[in-house]
Design brief:
mainly alpha
Length: 110
């Protein structure tokens, strides 16, 4: 028999699974996680403790737009990937619970 928590999860996921699958929503929800990765990279690059990074930053060939684009790509990828992974894990749990519920109902008919 399914626990009340499992039943609540099934009801919740039936209502919200399509809404949470949207990429824009996943990006917006995952942005803080992506920023947690990009901010330390920026601090590390601009802090000056790594001499090679300082040399690259002070060279004529350094383009800050390339660094900004790279950071934005990192943030976007991490944000979307982490949320898609969470969605997949919830979907798998949902399908397993539905299967468990179906097996219980079929075994209870005897």
């Amino acid at each position: 028999m399914l626990s009340p928590e499992e039943n609540r999860f099934i009801e919740y996921w039936q209502k919200n699974r399509a809404r949470q699958k949207r990429t824009i929503k996943q990006l917006l929800i995952g942005l803080p996680f992506g920023m947690l990765l990009a901010i330390p990279i920026s601090i590390n690059f601009f802090s000056g403790w790594y001499r090679r990074a300082v040399m690259v930053r002070n060279s004529e060939e350094f383009n800050p737009i390339v660094l900004l684009i790279a950071l934005l790509l990192i943030v976007g990828f991490v944000a979307i990937f982490s949320q898609k992974h969470k969605w997949d894990m919830r979907e798998q749990k949902y399908l397993e619970l539905l299967d468990k519920k179906k097996q219980e109902e079929s075994s209870g008919n005897f």
